[in-house]
Amino acid sequence: MNPAYFAILTIENNLSTMAHEMVHLWQFHHGKPSRRGYHNKEWALKMEGIGLIPSDTGRVGGKKVGQSMDHYILENGPFSEVCAKLITQDFRLSWLDCFPAIDPANPPEKKDRPDDGTDEAEDLIEKYSLDAQGDEVAEALTLPAKKNSSNRAKYRCPTCEVQVWGKPGLTILCGAEECSAERMPDVTGAS
Prior knowledge:
It is built from four helices and four strands, in the order ααββααββ. By secondary structure, it is an alpha+beta fold.
């Protein structure tokens, strides 16, 4: 389970991943697991029994056994029905990663960010949590830009791209033989 995906997948998809992993656990205790990472026929049959259809593509028509497997949810199957009942109750996935994955098929729009990250995390978690009605987070969670709390700044020559670290606010001159730049700007934004 990777909480980086909790913010961009539906509750149903997140719970189906948990059920997928629970079938591995069931097989470890009650079945005959195969080699590491391989999903065998016993595992596939148990997945189908709970309403998750194994597929190497994550779609209808994919191979049902193999090394790297995904699944899709059987419409009106046991998992789908139990999940629908659960998410109509007061159920939430409130644990989100600070740096969620970005769905390449649906990249988020650029957001305005506050100046620092203090006191914003709880508001963001509340804003992007999946609620009891099954609302989905349509875009990746964007945390505020982290304020540079370092006592060092990075300077880079705009001509020859030589870099140096120093105290914020310094005026640094590039001394490279063939460089015509007069001043190296702070590229960390510390000064």
